[in-house]
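Format notes (please read before filing issues)

Several people have asked whether sequences and structure tokens are stored in separate files. They are not. Every record keeps both together, in the order shown below: the sequence lines, then the token lines. Line labels are part of the format and must not be stripped during preprocessing.
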Amino acid sequence: MGSEVAELGCALGHSFADPQLLLTALTHSSHAHENGGEDYERLEFLGDAVFQLCSTELLVERFPEAREGQLSRLRSRMVNTHALAQLGRRLGIGPALRLGVGEEATGGRDRPRILAGAIEAILGAVFTDGGYTAALALARDWLEEDLAVLETARMRGWKDPRSLLQERAQREFGETPAYGVAARGGPAHQPTFTVEVRVGQRLLGRGEGRSKREAARNAAAEALASTELHPRGPS
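Then the structure lines:
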């Protein structure tokens, strides 16, 4: 096991009874295709379901007054390709990934879909190795920052990023944002979309997601953090 993988294992705070699980969780299909062995896709599939359950439990615990629709929207903010990729960057997943030569050469270590998949696979590996209690503890640690941000969103009335962006863009520019699909990738059964949001010719944000709606939401979230929304400087 490489030093990057070992360091990541320590950083996760989970001592694997079966270290091979973590190695598999970091192995992209391109590496497995070139070198043999198992890739992370089965663990990713499992981790996706575990993440949904863990995030749901944490949201119900944190926001006891929230209704089902509100909880569903909040969960989609925390568990999506953009958010999980950001988490992967924060945890330093990139250097520990095992990629094929071509994927390595084309920037796979920072590709959102790969980072998000590895994050889900790691959670699936922890669930397999230590059960739901271990997985929930890891998810709680990973999502604490996002839950704190959602506390602020709750004070704003649970508004979707697209609604907040529309309000701010109309205030700053007097125009409504327009969304457009810039790219589509991935296999037919599991597509990924890249959506851009603009006001006129001004690009405000770009987001990826497993649906056009998720990608648009992520684009709006990126735009809300952009200085492009403050053309006259801070008020």
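For reference, the curators noted about this record: Residues 112-155 form the longest helix (44 residues). Residues 231-235 have pLDDT under 50 and may be disordered.
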